[in-house]
Model the fold of this input.
Amino acid sequence: MNDKKPTTPRRDFLKTCATKIPQWLLVFSAFGPEQARAVDGESDYNPVEHNYAMGVDIHKCIGCGRCVDACKKENKVPEEPVYFRTWVERYVVPPEGEAHVDSPNGGRDGFPELPADREIFRTFFVPKLCNQCANPPCVQVCPVGATFVSRDGVVLVDDTYCVGCRYCIQACPYGARYLHPTKKVADKCTFCYHRIRRGLLPACVEACPTQARIFGEVGQQSSPLRRFLRFNDINVLKPALNTEPKVYYAGASREVR
Ligand code: SF4
Ligand code: SF4
Done:
């Protein structure tokens, strides 16, 4: 999630083209599986044996923000200006009318109490992050193949290829990407790719005190994710867009967008 919306992407893009065209010419011949191999092939880890996804149980989220804090620290997500790879939104549903959504500091510090005299039907918290879409618009629009789907189903950005044109940031319908202010490349949640390749959980999942976030293998019968998917009524965000998200929500009512 970015606090600052890109202001003049077209002008920035043209400027980027002017300064980086020689690099573009070099990398155009190097897209595709080879690129994924460069990222995947560092250890004994075999990406084709995995297919990761995340579950989010909205009934269990208490809006404490520990996941946001853990993610920020683990991934050194920029503080100034402040960006988030994952954030938590609070939905306040009145007896009639639209829900009000807030996310002060991405929910990192929890949420302020609501006024006692406010008429509220119900409130709930919705953790958000990159949905690791199986049909990702961010990948489709990247002009240099820097954003790609790894063979274990995680959408990644190769910093060495990214030219910072912001096309992917605009294409993502979930607001999951931002332009890193110092690296000048697109950045977002990777399911803590550096951790899961070592058999660890993503930092947000490990930090959650209520197990509201569930991580695992889609194809593994014994995976906690499979149990979560089997025993809950599951939704994804913005299903009409056909992005095929791999972050699955339990308890996401029609207000969640
Ligand atoms: Fe790309 Fe956005 Fe989908 Fe993540 S949520 S894969 S950044 S389109
Ligand atoms: Fe919700 Fe867990 Fe994040 Fe706390 S750590 S806000 S309970 S998902």
Q: What stands out?
A: Residues 3-38 have pLDDT under 50 and may be disordered. Residues 10-49+133-187 form a domain with the Alpha-Beta Plaits fold (CATH 3.30.70.20). The chain has two domains: 10-49+133-187, 52-132+192-250. The CA atoms of residues 58 and 251 lie 5 Å apart.
